[in-house]
Amino acid sequence: MITALPAARVPDPRDAPTMRWGIVGPGWIAERFARSLRRFTDQQVTAVASRSLDRAQAFAGRTGIDTAYGSYDELYASDAVDIVYVATPHTEHRSCALGAIARGKHVLVEKPLALDAAGATDIADAAARAGVFAGEAMWTRFLPKFDVIDSVLSSGMLGRVDTVIADHGEHFGPDHRIFDPTLAGGPLLDLGTYVISLAYTVLGPPATVSAVGLPANDEINGQISALLTAESGAHAVLTTTMTSTTPTTASLCGTEATLHVPGPFFMPGPFTVTAHSGASVTYDEAPGLQVDGLHYAAVDASRAIADGRLQSSVHPLADAVGTLAVLDELRTQVGIEFPVSR
Ligand SMILES: NC(=O)c1ccc[n+]([C@@H]2O[C@H](COP(=O)([O-])OP(=O)(O)OC[C@H]3O[C@@H](n4cnc5c(N)ncnc54)[C@H](OP(=O)(O)O)[C@@H]3O)[C@@H](O)[C@H]2O)c1
């Protein structure tokens, strides 16, 4: 029976303890992260570091940050930083996270946590040894709408979920870093990680994985479609591409009802639960962009640090490592080799 949806349990982002953030890799996502923190939280972004002092100063000027460094190491050593947000390309996540951890800093690393499960495990192990927080900024998991989806799933409202269908396809021009093989380009780590993470969260670690790929050109994969089966026997049917724009929807289909998230499913926005009778209930939220949601992952980290926890309870490191293990298997099956592992 379809009743009203539970309320989101996500606390007010402004109530989170204030941490002093340092940003490394002042690119596209870093700017949205800095603006999201400024607009929606009491977190302080105290420093930014680039491989070039000019770029760090330009970013600091645009986003109102006091201190700009011309090397990442200077930021890791700064006494004015509690936690480092790693916003470099995937290939650099492991080395940046390990560099910050070695200086005793907490780390929140953009998705994916590393290039592969082994690199992610290195980060998790180093953080545990150093007694600092480490987390993957898989921002979708921290959005209020996904907290409500968690409640819907645990309430049994959908019945037994036998089918998960999700896609993330976005058309990129050939000048974008996603076309660069030396930066582990291709859709898998930028876009595919969202659909694999969703399936992993809903169905748990897969029992079987099968995948097919389609090259974008003679250098790089452009598209992957995957079928995962869960221990329960449930199926996840997933696809990701960087050569075309797809609906970017997600459907969690149960024996009692179907939960449908319109595209883009990984951003703030509404979803609907519809019973087989046709009765439905909608989570009503205005569609939003990264700037409207990145801060939820940040304040989750701040709360964990203030509580003395070394990882998120919403998105534990095991989920980030487990998702990467699935991505590793997909790559093996499709024949994608990353030329670099740093
Ligand atoms: N959550 C989301 O919605 C979302 C959206 C987009 C991207 N991301 C993630 O965020 C990460 C960064 O993506 P982005 O789109 O922001 O990338 P970007 O615009 O290219 O920015 C990355 C920055 O990293 C620095 N960098 C360090 N080593 C580099 C290298 N070897 N090559 C190029 N740049 C290097 C560069 O800054 P300096 O040279 O100035 O230091 C660059 O500005 C990726 O892992 C991606 O998956 C997340």
Can you walk me through this structure?
Keywords: Oxidoreductase. This is Gfo/Idh/MocA family oxidoreductase. This protein is α/β, with parallel strands linked by helices and 342 residues long. It has 2 domains: 13-139, NAD(P)-binding Rossmann-like Domain (Rossmann fold, 3-Layer(aba) Sandwich), CATH 3.40.50; 141-288 and 315-334, Dihydrodipicolinate Reductase, domain 2 (2-Layer Sandwich), CATH 3.30.360.10. The chain is built from 9 helices and 14 strands. The strands form 2 sheets. It has an 8-stranded mixed sheet with strand order 8-9-10-7-11-12-13-14. It has a 6-stranded parallel sheet with strand order 3-2-1-4-5-6, with helices on both faces. Strand 2, helix 2 (53-63) and strand 3 (67-69) form a beta-alpha-beta unit. Helix 4 (90-102) packs parallel to helix 5 (117-130), helix 5 (117-130) runs antiparallel to helix 9 and helix 7 crosses helix 9 (317-334). The mean pLDDT is 97. Bound molecules: NADP nicotinamide-adenine-dinucleotide phosphate (NAP). Residues 25-30, 50-52, 55, 87-90, 92, 110-111, 139, 177, 183, 190, 290 line the site of NADP nicotinamide-adenine-dinucleotide phosphate (NAP).
